[in-house]
Amino acid sequence: MHAVKSNRPVNLSPDLILAVNLKSPVAIASILHRISGIVIFLLIPVLLYILQGTLESPESFAAIKEDVFGGFIGRFLVFVTLAGLLYHFFVGLKHLVMDFGVAEELESGRNFAKAALGVSAVSIALAFVWVVL
Fold it and tell me: Of the candidates 25, 21, 32, 27, which has an alpha carbon nearest to the alpha carbon of residue 86?
């Protein structure tokens, strides 16, 4: 009797999945892109509330400006939003360029993902200095 190939699914442990994916810059960029999209989506109501407050009157604009940018928590919330937008933008550009057939090979895709991660990290660090400090 010979061995028969099994088509049954293989259950992989979460540790093994993380160990494999954390070695690949492409996987890291993709996972963080999804997370940044979720962060942006969840912060939309907060941003719309702030926008509504700033448009009501000059007094409400001054109050929102003082409340949001006057304390650390408000500035940090603005930074998290800006960081999510910056990251999502740069990695989204990477995806759009790859949709046109550029850097689709394994090595060029890895290099492009590293470049997108690097540009995002620098822009997020600059945003932190600008908004929080």
Answer: 32
| CB 54 within 8 Å of CB 66 | no
C-alpha to C-alpha distance for 131 and 87, rounded to whole angstroms: 16
Give, as one character, the DSSP assignment of residue 22. Answer: T
3-state secondary structure of 9: coil
**Residue 23 phi, psi (nearest 5):** -90, -15
How far is it, in rounded angstroms, from Cα 55 to Cα 71?
21
Predicted TM-score (pTM) above 0.85: no
User: Which residue's structure tokens are 């990695």?
Assistant: 91
Tens of pLDDT, residue by residue over 65-80, are 998 888 898 899 899 9
